[in-house]
Amino acid sequence: MKQIIRRLARVGDSSQCRSANTNGKNSGLRQSNVREVPEGHVPVYVGEEMERFVVRTELLSRPVFLELLRRSAHEYGYEQRGVLRIPCTVRVFSTVLDSLLSGDGAHSDADLIRYIDCDA
């Protein structure tokens, strides 16, 4: 896990961006030329279409994100170069991210993990 987090600090180049900003709402940036990653955030690429999301690093310690990172390591290995890829659909990742950012506690991490399991 430490290897993945160290790599995250070095990753950050793509021409497609969907940003989850710090106020908990998605800014909706897609297919823009934004290449910079705000401090305290990390870019991840999701699904076969490799859609880019910029995620707050504090979310990486959540159990559902740890599960997604574990699946990424299993799918792509720790030696993967370049970007951090998350092996789930964009729809599922968006739902998980929106739930985490809403902060309303409507879905537990266990519920979200079951949700990504259903899509696998």
Automatic annotation (TrEMBL):
Example of a GO biological process term: response to auxin
Protein family (similarity comment): Belongs to the ARG7 family.
Protein known as: Auxin-responsive family protein
Taxonomic source organism: Rhynchospora pubera
